[in-house]
Amino acid sequence: MWSDWGAAGPGGDMQWCFSQVKGAIDDDVAEADIISTVEFNHTGELLATGDKGGRVVIFQQEIENKNPPQFRSEYNVYSTFQSHEPEFDYLKSLEIEEKINKIRWLPQKNAAQFLLSTNDKTIKLWKISERDKRPEGYNLKEEDGRYKDPNTITSLRVPVLIPMDLMVEASPRRVFANAHTYHINSISVNSDNETYLSADDLRINLWHLEITDRSFNIVDIKPANMEELTEVITAAEFHPHQCNTFVYSSSKGTIRLCDMRASALCDKHSKLFEEPEDPSNRSFFSEIISSISDVKFSHNGRYMMTRDYLSVKIWDLNMENRPVETYQVHEYLRSKLCSLYENDCIFDKFECCWNGNDSVVMTGSYNNFFRMFDRGHRRDVTLEASRENSKPMQVLKPRKVCAGGKRKKDEISVDSLDFNKKILHTAWHPQDNIIAVATTNNLYIFQDKVI
Amino acid sequence: MSAAIMEVNAEARRILAVSISKLYASRTQRGGLRLHRSLLLSLVMKSARDIYHSSRESEGPPVGGEQPSTEEAMDACSGCPGEANPGHREPQPEPESVEPAPEDPEGCDGEITEDKENRSPARQSRKRRGKASAAPDFLPSKRARLEPGEERYAAAPLGSCCRAGAVDSLSALSLNRVIPAF
C-alpha cells in the first residue's frame, strides 16, 4: 500500500519548504483578487497568475544562489496589466465576466514573451517586452517632448540610445473574439507553435495565432435538440509533441482523443477513455463527481492525467478501458456529498499538474491542503499552504485528515475542514522542484529543500 | 410507509428543493447561466425524481396529502420548454430556466419570426390551473407566472408529460427541459 511520505531521508526525498507568499494578508478577500489561474512559462523563469478582476500578474525568477544545496530563488513582480474588462452582450442581455479562466504561454521565439489569456468569451495574445534604453538627441524635439522652433535648428545629429530603468510593457497583439457562444473553459497551444485551440461547453475551435477574424470548428457536440443534451466539454489540450492530436474531457467522466488528420470535424474520436462506474458508489451525486475538471498530458506525451471531484487518474494513451493509476485525493468527502452539494463545493473545479519528469503529480483540496502523489515511489503527502507555516525556508509538515474514529494528535477531523479555503490552481516548475499554489487570493511558492 | 422509504423520499424532496433554489439563484449570476452547472443540477434533480418516484411506486398508492406539493415541484421542473432551433440562430441562454421562455415560439414556428413585443393576447393561454398554480411550499413566495407559449409544446412528443394530475405522469416527465434553451 501507499506509504506516507513524511520523513526526510537520503537520496532524493522531497522536502518542501516555504519560499514566498504573494497577495494581501487580510482575511477580507476582495472578489477581484481571487486567483483564477496559475501558469509557469516553458523555462520556469516566469510565473503568471490571472484573477477574477481580469488582471494578469507576471512574476520573474531571480536566482540568488545557483549552487545546490543552497539554491535560492525569488519570484518578484515583473509585469501587471489588465487583460480583460467586463463586457456586456447586448443581444443576450448578459454580462460577460472579466475573470481570467486560463493563461497559456507561447514558447519564446525572440526577446519578447507572449501569452494567451482568456475569459469566458474572448482570447487575447499579449506581448510582454522589456525596454531598457531610450532614444535621446532628437533634432526636432526637446528632451521634454516639446517641439523646437525650426528656425533654431542649425545642425543635424543622429539620436542615440541611452540606458534607462527597466520598463516591462504588455501590449495586446491579437484579440480572438466572437467565436464562442458558450463559456470558454480551456485554451491550449499546439506544438507547431502556429495554432491553438479554445474549448467551450459544446465546441472546440482551432485558431491560427496570426488570424483573428476566423477559426475552424473542430469539435461540436451540440445536439440538434438542446433537450437531449447529456454532456458538455470540460477541458481540452493538445498533445505536447503530436501536433495533430488533442484530447477533450467531458462532464460524464470520459476523455476523447482526436486526430485532426482523420477529418476536418473531429466529432468522431480516435480513442475513448472511460472507466466503468463502480455500482456500489452510486448516489444522487454520482454524475457530478465523475465530471472531469481538468486534463493534462504528461510531458513525455505517453500519459494523460484527469481530475474529477474525488480523485486523480493517470491514463496510458494506449489503454482506453481504464486508467493505469488512480489516486484518491479526499475520499473522506464521499460521505459528505450532500452537504457539499448544498454549499456548492461539489461544483468546484480542481486542476492538476505534473512535475518536470512526470514522476509526481499534484492537485489541490480544501482547508488550503494540496496533495502530491509520487508515482514511482508509491507515496503521497498532504501539505498545507498557510500563513502560519510561512517562515523563510520553513519545512512543511505533512498533514493528515482523520476520516472517522479516534482523532490522533496533529490530525484534523473532516468536520473541522474549512471548505471556503480551497486550492483549485497549482503549477509545477517545468524543470525544478518549485511549485506555485494558489489559495483564494494568495500565491504560495514552495521549493524543495534540496534542488 | 416504511421508515427507510420515508427517509429516502424526504431526502429526494430536499435535494430537489435545494436544486430548484440553485437554479433560481443562477439566474442572477454574473456571466449568465452556466451550461455545465445547469446540466449537473438537472441530472441531480432527475436522480432525485427517479428515486422518489420508484420508492413511492414500491409503496403502492400514495398518501393524498403529500402528493400535490411534490407534483408541483415536479411540474416546476418541467416548466422549461427547451428549444429546438437548429441552425437558425444561436439560441440565447434563458434567464428563467424553470419556466418557459418568451422566446420559444421561434422554435415551434420554424421560419416565422416572432414579434415578441406585439404578441396577440389570443395566443396566450394558461396551461395549468387549480392546484398547480399554487406555489409549492419550498419555493420563493413570489412565484413567476407560467409564461404564455407553454401550451404550444403540448403537441410536441415530450409535451404530454407536462399535464398535472396523475401520478403516472411523473415517470414520463422529462427533466431534460430544465436545461435552458442556450
Structural features, described:
Chain A: InterPro entries: PP2A_PR55, PP2A_PR55_CS, WD40/YVTN_repeat-like_dom_sf, WD40_repeat_dom_sf, WD40_rpt. Chain A: PP2A consists of a common heterodimeric core enzyme, composed of a 36 kDa catalytic subunit (subunit C) and a 65 kDa constant regulatory subunit (PR65 or subunit A), that associates with a variety of regulatory subunits. Chain A: This is Serine/threonine-protein phosphatase 2A 55 kDa regulatory subunit B. Chain A: Belongs to the phosphatase 2A regulatory subunit B family. Chain A: Keywords: Repeat, WD repeat. The complex is a heterodimer of chains A (451) and B (182). Chain A is mostly beta strands. Chain A has a domain at 34-177. Chain A is built from 2 helices and 33 strands. Chain A has helices spanning 286-290, 337-342, and strands spanning 3-4, 16-22, 35-40, 46-51, 55-65, 72-82, 87-89, 94-96, 102-105, 113-118, 123-136, 160-176, 186-189, 195-199, 203-208, 211-220, 233-238, 245-250, 255-259, 271-273, 294-297, 303-307, 311-316, 325-328, 352-354, 360-364, 369-374, 379-384, 400-402, 411-413, 425-428, 434-438, 443-448. Chain A has a 5-stranded mixed β-sheet with strand order 1-28-27-26-25, with no helix packed on it. A 4-stranded antiparallel β-sheet of chain A has the order 2-33-32-31, with no helix packed on it. A 4-stranded antiparallel β-sheet of chain A has the order 3-4-5-6, with no helix packed on it. In chain A, a hairpin with a 5-residue loop joins strand 21 and strand 22 (303-307). Chain A is globular and about 90 Å long. The two termini of chain A are 28 Å apart. Residues 7-12 of chain A have low confidence and may be disordered. Residues 64-114, 128-137 and 149-173 of chain B have low confidence and may be disordered. Chain B is elongated, with a radius of gyration of 17 Å. Chain B contains 5 helices and no strands. With 182 residues, chain B is mainly alpha-helical. Helix content of chain B is 38%, strand content 0%. Classes of the chains: A mainly beta (451), B mainly alpha (182).
